[in-house]
């Protein structure tokens, strides 16, 4: 819808031209830039770290939404904040002391997010709601772009929406978001949609603009 935030994941961009890709996708209508950080340990893939985030920071003023799929996360929070992250999201499954990690992120001046894998129950966030700015619900098992949306998570979106009540917490969806799946999660209460392959297919500004518009219209 109009006010749904679209956050393209640069995981599906051309890494050889990452700075330009960020500029292009912002011109094409991206609201936030979603940055998938993977360590080859918590998830079976490796992407990039703080130096790359820092290198592309100057290309846009849009929100940098950093999704850390790393374990441990705590030793690197400062580096991701210094690199220019606006939001730092850690995985509940990768963090032993979630309450402490969330406090640390806010102490660094960033918004704090927690991400849940598809199999993780929403109850893990129940006692940290007042430390949270965003809850990221994975609709694929993290590690790769281009995977199929897991529909059972739609019910979890509904439950999280009712759990957060009137708190100003974003509900973000990540994995397999397309014009077909976007309406399911938006209707359930999600207000931020990450999309990688569905945005970057086509490889041109016109294609990105069309792809973003199609998700928004859905
Ligand atoms: C998966 C990442 C996602 C991924 C989404 O581990 O967290 O952000 O890039 O890609 P698509 O939209 O292609 O499923
Ligand atoms: Zn992500």
From TrEMBL:
GO terms for molecular function: D-ribulose-phosphate 3-epimerase activity; metal ion binding. Binds 1 divalent metal cation per subunit. GO terms for cellular component: cytoplasm. One of its GO terms (biological process) is pentose-phosphate shunt. PANTHER family: RIBULOSE-5-PHOSPHATE-3-EPIMERASE (PTHR11749). Catalyzes the reversible epimerization of D-ribulose 5-phosphate to D-xylulose 5-phosphate. This is Ribulose-phosphate 3-epimerase. It comes from Sinorhizobium mexicanum. The lineage of its organism: Bacteria, Pseudomonadati, Pseudomonadota, Alphaproteobacteria, Hyphomicrobiales.
